[in-house]
Write a structure and sequence with these properties.
The complex is a heterodimer. Chain A is mostly helical. Chain A is 79% helix and 1% strand. Chain A starts with a helix and ends with a helix. The chains are: A mainly alpha, B mainly alpha. At the A-B interface, helix 1, helix 3, helix 4, helix 5 and helix 7 of A face helix 2, helix 4, helix 5, helix 6 and helix 7 of B.
Chain lengths: 295, 319
């Protein structure tokens, strides 16, 4: 750097610090006012009591958390459906991502665009469409006739909710898997084969560790919205599959019991963070042993 | 003597890498892969096709096909409630997309020059806003606005008497909540683009005594444009489609299209809803394809590679 440039940069530093501050100001205001403050208020409210006309009265009580522990059903159901949903999307997405990345050729861009389009369109309306497809005049009626049980239903059951959730979040699993597979250095696979490793050993020791970050990102991206899902159980489950999302809407918008709802919201974040931590711990533990076995 | 041989050796290696094709597995496995891919694409498009087809169904009972008709589109567009909902949706989506794109891009540019700790703090907030389930953001924003209004409105009433201006839920609260989530998306997209940007042009521009503003408009902005356009479109469609956040923070008269559709859907399938749904599909797919086309043209003009300058490419990479 020349002396002149260095001096000019020093002279401008006061003004440029101001400019930098102004650049990040709106986003900072938004994060503090509409993310940090609301989350703090929710935590404070979760220890409060319900006002007579709804809303909040300051207090320090653990009753709301007690209620969460006494009635854990929505948490258990959400955890169960989100776990099954994450595994299902992974099983569907992995072969597809591998297919596009290795066999896509010059159609890769088109195949990816075709994945983005459904993901881009309204989630609500795609859920609505399954009402027609799975309804008594659609798949359920068809299967019911085939097995001789006219009362057979998919809508209003966990299966209907599961189909809707898997459908809705599948692209979020495919994208990160595709990106990691696409960037994979194929020379490593070749080298492994040249060194006499079998197909399974190559997959376990080369491919799996490389795609693991994609699997982790995809699982987290899918698991989180499934845990907090409201629209799908409300539409395809007829409200009979009662997940945390449904419980939160009930507490906040219908019963107006904000402290109870706040405690459930804190509980949801806690359950989510614990599950994700356990998942990462489990995968990293697996990775270490694999490294040892390679050595 | 050995000098020319040195670059020659790795270049052969690179070429060998490029020409590498996956070793074909058995014929059965190959066809299983292909069949799986076809089924997944069919699964993804089935609901879209079904809604569009049934929107043209003449029958009042929306799930039985009796003939082709476009009458339901007319019925839907003539419905005053739907017109108002479309208007609300467009107001909210435009306001949100403009604010979120501006704030996100500004923050991405500013964060290049702040101390590391500050940037890490910002990163944490960005990821928290994306990782916390939408419904929690929604209810937290509701509780926050309600609490804030309880504080502010008595003060306003004290200052202005009976006819005083009162804060309440409506377009502004919906936009404020959407902007939080979308600023983070735009920030991530633009930062990804910035980190992959060629810095030498910016330095050359400064060496040629261009002002920071001129450097921004002539060098940085054109390079960031694809990420900014993708961010804008993503924010716009998010807002246009959002149900969960909007349902928590909307007020009387600010009901958007998704709120209307959800209310209808809970009553069952109707041909009018099918028509509205088909129009929403057409509109959002249209914006995506227009964005894709604009970026492809931009890429051709500036000579950058097409793959990393498409909306689809950017969305897949950013996640």
């Amino acid at each position: 750097m020349t002396v002149a440039a260095a001096t000019s940069r020093r002279e401008g530093s006061g003004r440029s610090a101001l400019a930098t501050g102004l650049l990040i100001l709106p986003a900072t205001v938004w994060y503090v006012l509409l993310l940090v403050a609301p989350l703090v208020i929710v935590i404070v409210f979760s220890f409060g009591e319900k006002a007579r006309n709804g809303g909040y009265v300051p207090a320090f009580s653990l009753d709301n958390y007690g209620q969460v522990l006494l009635r854990p059903d929505p948490f258990i159901d959400s955890l169960r459906l989100a776990t099954i949903g994450t595994i299902l999307t992974l099983l569907i997405a992995l072969p597809l991502a591998y297919f596009i990345a290795t066999r896509g050729g010059r159609h890769k861009g088109m195949l990816v665009l075709l994945l983005v389009i459904p993901f881009w369109t309204s989630f609500l309306i795609r859920a609505y469409s399954w009402l027609i497809i799975l309804g008594p005049r659609g798949a359920a009626g068809f299967i019911g006739d085939a097995i001789g049980e006219p009362a057979f239903r998919i809508l209003g059951t966990d299966v209907g909710v599961m189909i809707g959730m898997t459908y809705g979040y599948l692209p979020l699993m495919i994208f990160p898997l595709y990106v990691t597979l696409e960037r994979m250095d194929r020379a490593l696979v070749e080298a492994s084969k040249d060194l006499g490793a079998g197909r399974w050993a190559t997959f376990r020791q080369i491919t799996l560790p490389i795609i693991l970050p994609g699997v982790i990102t995809g699982s987290i991206l899918v698991f989180i919205p499934m845990m907090g899902e409201y629209v799908i159980p409300a539409i395809l489950g007829y409200g009979r599959t009662f997940l945390i999302g449904n419980a939160l809407v009930l507490d906040f918008l219908e019963a107006r019991h904000w402290p109870a709802g706040s405690a459930k919201a804190v509980g949801l974040i806690a359950v989510m963070m614990i599950s994700i931590t356990l998942y990462l711990w489990f995968l990293n533990r697996g990775r270490k042993t694999r490294e040892v076995s390679v050595l | 003597m050995t000098a020319p041989a040195i670059p020659a050796v790795p270049s052969v290696g690179v070429e060998a890498d490029r020409s590498w094709r996956p070793r074909r597995l058995g014929g059965f496995v190959e066809s299983a892969f292909k069949a799986h891919a076809i089924l997944v694409y069919a699964f993804l498009y089935l609901p879209i096709v079904v809604v569009i087809v049934f929107a043209f169904n003449a029958n009042r009972l929306a799930t039985i096909w009796t003939g082709f008709s476009t009458e339901w589109f007319g019925v839907a567009l003539g419905n005053g409630v739907i017109q108002k909902a479309i208007q609300n949706s467009l107001i909210v989506a435009f306001a949100n997309a403009i604010l979120a794109t501006t704030f996100g891009t500004m923050a991405a540019l500013g964060l290049q020059r702040v101390p590391r700790q500050l940037r890490m703090g910002f990163d944490v907030l960005t990821y928290v806003s994306i990782i916390v389930p939408e419904i929690v953001i929604a209810l937290a924003t509701l509780v926050f606005f309600a609490t804030a209004f309880d504080f502010v409105n008595p003060v306003l009433a004290g200052a202005g008497g009976a006819g005083a201006f009162k804060l309440g839920f409506g377009h502004a609260t919906i936009v404020a909540a959407h902007v939080l989530f979308n600023t983070s998306l735009v920030l991530l997209l633009v930062r990804a683009r910035l980190s992959g940007m060629d810095r030498t042009q910016v330095e050359a521009s400064f060496d040629l005594f261009a002002t920071p503003w001129r450097t921004f408009t002539q060098i940085t902005f054109p390079q960031l444009l694809p990420a900014i356009v993708a961010g804008f479109l993503l924010a716009f469609t998010f807002s246009f489609d959002d149900y969960v956040i909007t349902s928590f923070v909307s007020g009387p008269g600010s009901s958007t299209l998704p709120l209307y559709v959800f209310g209808q859907v809970k009553r069952g399938v109707s041909p009018e809803t099918n028509a509205v749904a088909a129009m929403i599909f057409a509109f959002t797919i249209g914006t995506l394809l227009i964005g894709q086309l604009l970026l492809a043209r931009h890429a051709r003009r500036t000579g950058s590679r097409g793959s990393d300058a498409s909306v689809a490419g950017m969305i897949t990479e950013a996640r």
